[in-house]
Design brief:
By secondary structure, the protein is α+β, with helices and mostly antiparallel strands. Helices cover 28% and strands 24% of the residues.
Length: 536
């Protein structure tokens, strides 16, 4: 097939316009066009009065070689690349130990899936519960202020991505055939077909729940052993002749599993696991992350600013945004994990702390838009120890817990009051969506002074890009601290820990991904590396 890129058509183009555009682009008679499919559909909304759809199409013609020759100098007419995923290996029949995957977030899920597909019969462990039971526990926090530290937004089947917007776009340069593998398996598990072609695919929480269950069933059918409420308490590491090598894992109840290959895909909030591997002298280093708040506006305001007269158009859906401001104090403030038509959720995994995150359903039909507004920080802000970033996060999460009233309610403040440096005492036109509740206060006690100053400078700058962004009644809820892992478990080109053979750090918790798609792709890459380390 031939791939055509940058085919632009009006938002409300007629059904036959795509075919006409192909024939015009390739200068072909109608009988020479055999078929075409949409590979990608995005939109250009820079001019709200004339929003265009932008297509990438895969086209079959009667004389492909001749057409490609005529357009040899046109970068928008190229052979369709092969994105079919091919397994890199098959498990040997005499495999001594089954590989172990720790974690069932997007990274662990796809690492385990690929290993099962290749015949390695992995043992997959998760400290939390199956997704339905985990949902019940999560709702207890949201509705009754009751936290289960082992079963919540962070821990359990599906990982933190299950309670999110389900975004499936990524900033990794080229997800290629691995990214296509992720989307294809998601569709097989129940995701809508459109995630294969829309430019910013998303799934939503409720659909993710059923998809995770479907993938679990498929892995079991391929020979995987999946165990929940199975927290890894220790990793057994042999040190012989100056070489460190994994030889097993120990579960919380004392069970020992012999293995010489472990995928560490624990997510960015497994703080006790980070401490454990650091105590075992696995090489860990501090890395940058970001902290801030969640901000909510009427979704209708964002739609009007982004889409103008086309606000509410079914193809465009609820509008999103991406903002960044470089501050006079040297900090950068940016929007993070923007959730159109969603809700702000309680995302703590530790008692006595408050953490916020964003979530939305597939419909994105809730009244408010929400996004993290976060400030970049570096290990210079928490010096001295590779795990110092964890202590830094805990400090501000604990202060947010106190400022919210000590009940898992979150501290909140209206934007107008925040900019005026005064505590809020009453909600305005924008009501917060965070459950169990929001306690109005002054958020300046919940973040470092430099972060407060940076956000105060950034909000008016954002208002110049989205009119009304700094509206007085927009509501801010604190704190957002789990933007990414505060550590990196450093690995080499073979994807193994640089000082511990057989340990494969993976995904967001290890510092190598950010978001569902990039974490899943990293899981595939690690599974491939693990397989190739076992197969000659």
């Amino acid at each position: 097939m031939i791939r055509l890129t940058e085919i632009k058509l009006p938002l409300d183009h007629p059904e036959g316009a795509l075919k006409s555009a192909i024939l015009k682009k390739l200068n072909l008679p109608a009988q020479d066009l055999v078929s075409f499919t949409v590979f990608r559909r995005g939109y250009d909304a820079r001019k709200t009065s004339a929003i265009h759809l932008i297509y990438t199409l895969d086209v079959t013609v009667t004389n492909e070689a001749a057409v490609l020759k005529r357009f040899a100098d046109d970068l928008h007419v190229r052979p369709t690349p092969d994105t079919t995923y091919k397994l890199v290996a098959r498990a040997p029949e005499n495999l001594k130990n089954r590989p172990v995957v720790i974690g069932t977030g997007p990274c662990g899920l796809f690492a385990g899936f690929l290993l099962a597909e290749m015949g390695f019969r992995p043992i997959i462990l998760d400290r939390g519960k199956i997704v339905r039971e985990r949902t019940v526990d999560t709702f207890k926090l949201w509705r009754k202020n009751v936290l289960n530290p082992e079963s919540n937004v962070q821990f359990g089947e599906g990982g933190a991505g299950t309670f999110s917007d389900g975004k499936l776009h990524s900033q990794i340069k080229d997800p290629g055939h691995r990214g296509r593998k992720v989307l294809t398996e998601f569709v097989k598990a129940g995701a809508p077909d459109e995630i294969l072609y829309v430019s910013k695919p998303h799934i939503g929480t409720f659909r993710l729940v059923t998809m995770v269950e479907s993938m679990r069933a498929t892995m079991l059918s391929m020979g995987a052993d999946i165990r929940f409420q199975s927290k890894v308490d220790d990793i057994d590491i042999d040190e012989t002749n100056g070489e460190r090598r994994v030889r097993g894992v120990v579960l919380e109840g004392g069970e020992y599993i012999a293995t010489d290959r472990v995928v560490m895909a624990v997510g960015h909030s497994a703080r006790d696991t980070f401490q454990m591997i650091y105590d075992r002298d696995v090489y860990v280093e501090a890395k940058p992350f970001s902290i801030g708040v969640r901000i909510e506006h009427p979704q209708s305001l964002i739609d009007r600013c982004r889409f103008g007269k086309y606000a509410g158009h079914p193809i465009l859906g609820a509008a999103d945004y991406k903002l960044v401001h470089h501050c006079s104090n040297g900090r950068s403030v940016y929007s993070f994990c923007m959730c159109p038509g969603g809700t702000v959720v309680a995302a703590t995994s530790e008692e006595g702390r408050v953490v916020t995150n964003g979530m939305s359903q597939y419909s994105r039909a809730e009244r408010n838009a929400n996004s993290g507004i976060v400030v970049g920080i570096t290990p210079d802000d928490y010096p001295g120890h590779p795990l110092a970033g964890i202590a830094f996060q805990r400090e501000w999460e604990s202060k947010a817990f106190v400022a919210g009233g000590g009940t898992y309610d979150a501290p909140g403040q209206k934007v107008g009051d925040f900019l005026a440096a005064r505590a809020s005492t009453a909600f305005g036109s924008v009501l917060p969506s965070y459950k169990p509740g929001v306690h109005l206060t002054d958020l300046s006690a919940c973040l470092p002074d430099y972060a407060i100053a940076a956000i105060r400078e950034a909000l008016p700058a954002f208002d110049r890009q989205i009119k009304g962004y700094a509206m007085d009644d927009a509501i801010m809820t604190g704190v957002e601290t789990r933007t990414s892992s505060p550590i990196r478990i450093k690995r080499g080109e073979d994807f193994q820990s640089i000082n511990t053979r057989g340990l494969f750090p993976a995904g967001e918790g290890a510092g190598y991904a950010g978001g569902i798609l990039s974490a899943a792709v990293d899981g595939i890459r690690v599974a491939e590396a693990l397989a190739l380390s076992l197969v000659p």
